[in-house]
């Protein structure tokens, strides 16, 4: 978890139960992107700095610059471009 942008008061509230809730929020977001959205979205650059927390410490997935979109019936895709940060 990237602590440098978290308010010191909120940082003190990051007990394990809350951290677990943040992780569940990330997992639910990924499940939605992969299975439940109109298009299948593969993020391809998920890392701590791409997870934002709102004022209630709910996780929000951000930075979809390297994401790949798939139709509902597509199960795989090819790319010849190497990506990463």
TrEMBL record:
The keyword Cytoplasm does not apply. One of its GO terms (cellular component) is plasma membrane. GO terms for molecular function: ATP binding; protein serine/threonine kinase activity. Residues 1-85 form the Protein kinase domain. It catalyses: L-threonyl-[protein] + ATP = O-phospho-L-threonyl-[protein] + ADP + H(+); L-seryl-[protein] + ATP = O-phospho-L-seryl-[protein] + ADP + H(+). It holds the Pfam family Pkinase. Keywords: ATP-binding, Kinase, Nucleotide-binding, Serine/threonine-protein kinase, Transferase. Its EC number is 2.7.11.1. SUPFAM superfamilies: Protein kinase-like (PK-like). PANTHER family: CYSTEINE-RICH RECEPTOR-LIKE PROTEIN KINASE 27-RELATED, RECEPTOR-LIKE SERINE/THREONINE-PROTEIN KINASE SD1-8. This is non-specific serine/threonine protein kinase. It comes from Rubroshorea leprosula.
């Amino acid at each position: 978890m990237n602590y440098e942008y978290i308010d010191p008061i909120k940082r003190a509230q990051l007990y394990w139960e809350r951290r677990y809730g943040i992780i569940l929020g990330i997992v639910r977001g990924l499940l939605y992107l992969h299975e439940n959205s109109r298009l299948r979205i593969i993020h391809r650059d998920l890392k701590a700095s791409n997870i934002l927390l709102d004022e209630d410490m709910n996780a929000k997935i951000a930075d979809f610059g390297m994401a790949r979109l798939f139709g509902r019936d597509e199960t795989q895709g090819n790319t010849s471009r190497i990506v990463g940060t």
